[in-house]
Specification:
There is one protein chain. The protein is an alpha/beta fold and 374 residues long. It has two domains: 239 residues, Type I PLP-dependent aspartate aminotransferase-like (Major domain) (Aspartate Aminotransferase, domain 2, 3-Layer(aba) Sandwich), CATH 3.40.640; 112 residues, Aspartate Aminotransferase, domain 1, CATH 3.90.1150.10. The protein contains nine helices and 16 strands. The strands form five sheets. The chain has a seven-stranded mixed sheet. It has a three-stranded antiparallel sheet with strand order 13-14-16, with helices on one face. Helix 3 crosses helix 4. The chain is globular and about 60 Å long. The two termini are 37 Å apart. Bound molecules: pyridoxal-5'-phosphate (PLP). The site of pyridoxal-5'-phosphate has 12 residues, from helix 3.
Length: 374
């Protein structure tokens, strides 16, 4: 396989090349069925097998406990900002922790369906820090507490999920892990529900993943659209209506790919799957952050203890060079580094499918650019 350019898009984002080759090879005829996956009934044997395998592989990769259900839905992460309160709030109070653009959106949307308590906000820091959980103003009767475990735009990440019980709350924790899922393990003992759009780490746009603890099902508000009622979706194994079949298939190929990934520690221990991804992602992020910190030419403004491993926003000290930086990067096979419009500057997204070689190539380009422009 020839090396394609390295794609640093925040999403839709790069997909492992092996997966794209496999999908291409199977496009016209999946496993001798004479049909492509897009052409199959979602209720037929072939697709049911694809779906069951994808769910089983994800459960294994993320060590999802038995009492959680895996749902594949549509509408993206943004639709979940409504679907979560429609299913869990019972029209009561919910606690929101605002740590960046995505949780800000969740906060606004939840207000259409529930009483929203702003438990904490990092807005005053320009979303460069995370408010410490022991400062959160949690409400007594909250139906859930929502956090975004990785803020894709601002580049802040919870490296440890909050332990709500230790904070005196009995509410379930809801995490938006759109841009974090499968990049590291999840501590399910602290989570009631996790959701994410697929297009960052686990597939194409159009597929949404929901992992929900069973005891939270059964309380959707009467106005909740049936197709978005977790209980109905769970009862029908994500086939209440036609699920995004091709997205599920592609996510399944990506889960297989993650399962095959290994990293070897100095003592010879071999890490596999999500543990291997976590180590690789840490290595990749540290490489870029340490270069950013060593340079006066570039900067990242996020506090060190909450810097995202997945999304690294950075800025040139002289922003008049942004265009030259981006066009030079593109010429070097380093694509989609332009920052989100709300922040400006640059952003390198280092999802699972970004190899270490891509980050090395980026740092080498940045060093060259710095030398020739400093
Ligand atoms: C991308 C993203 C979303 C929105 O996903 P859509 O699929 O565009 O609805 C929500 N939350 C986070 C953290 C994201 O990164």
């Amino acid at each position: 396989m020839s090396q394609r350019p390295f794609n640093f898009s925040a999403g839709p984002a790069t997909i492992p090349q092996e997966v794209l080759h496999m999908a291409a090879a199977e496009m016209l005829d999946w496993h001798g069925t004479g049909m492509g996956v897009m052409e199959m009934s979602h209720r037929g044997k072939a697709f049911m097998a694809i779906h069951a395998q994808a769910v089983a592989d994800l459960r294994e990769l993320l060590a999802i406990p038995e009492n959680f259900r895996v749902l594949f839905m549509q509408g993206g992460g943004l639709a979940q900002n409504a679907i979560v309160p429609l299913n869990l709030s019972r029209g009561g109070t919910v606690d929101l922790v605002v740590t960046g653009a995505w949780s800000q959106k969740s906060y606004k949307e939840a207000g259409k369906y529930a009483q929203v308590n702003l438990a904490a906000s990092a807005q005053a820091s320009g979303f460069t820090t995370l408010p410490s959980p022991n400062t959160w103003q949690l409400s007594k009767e909250a139906a859930y507490v929502h956090v975004c475990s990785n803020e894709t735009i601002h580049g802040v990440e919870f490296h440890e999920l909050p332990d709500l019980q230790a904070l005196g709350s009995t509410a379930p924790l809801v995490i938006d892990f759109s841009s974090q899922v499968t990049s590291r393990p999840v501590d399910w003992s602290r989570v009631g529900l996790a959701f994410g759009g697929a297009q960052k780490n686990i597939g194409p746009a159009g597929l949404t993943l929901v992992v929900v603890r069973e005891d939270l099902l059964g309380h959707a508000m009467a106005v909740c659209p049936s197709a978005f009622d977790y209980t109905l979706v769970a009862e029908h194994d994500s086939m209440y209506n036609t699920p995004p079949t091709y997205g599920i298939y592609l996510a399944g190929l990506i889960f297989q790919w993650v399962k095959q990934q290994t990293e070897t520690l100095a003592d010879g221990t071999v890490l596999r799957g999500v543990a291997a991804m976590e180590l690789r992602n840490k290595t990749k992020a540290e490489l870029l952050y340490s270069y950013l910190d060593s340079s006066d030419f570039y900067s990242n403004k996020v506090a060190k203890d909450c810097r995202s491993r997945m999304n690294l926003p950075f800025f040139l000290a002289d922003e008049s060079r942004n265009e030259a930086f981006l066009s030079g990067a593109q010429a070097h096979g380093l694509l989609q580094l332009k920052g989100h419009k709300s922040l400006g500057g640059m952003r390198a997204s280092l999802y699972n499918a970004m190899p270490l070689a891509g980050v090395q190539a980026l740092v080498a380009y940045m060093q060259d650019f710095e030398r020739s422009h400093a």
